[in-house]
Amino acid sequence: MVVLAVAVFGCGPTLYAVNASPAAGVLEEAREAGAAEHAPYEFHYAHENLLKAREEAAEANYQDAIRFAELAEEYGTKARDLARRRMREMGR
Fold it and tell me: Which domain does 72 fall in, by range?
């Protein structure tokens, strides 16, 4: 029973780290693409979800942290892609 508990509860931090790292990377790519200006809704939504993921992880709420990290990655990707597209349309 103890082994099962360790296997179930011991994975939370690892799974969170696996999800949070790509989210942070995508958000940085979005920032570099000018998403704060060209895709502000998506960018700020991604940023706030990443902050919330970190907050939940600090409180050991790993399932919530993973969910927020996944949202951050999803909206960070949207922000990055939208900003890049808008920059191309502007001829920059």
Answer: 12-89
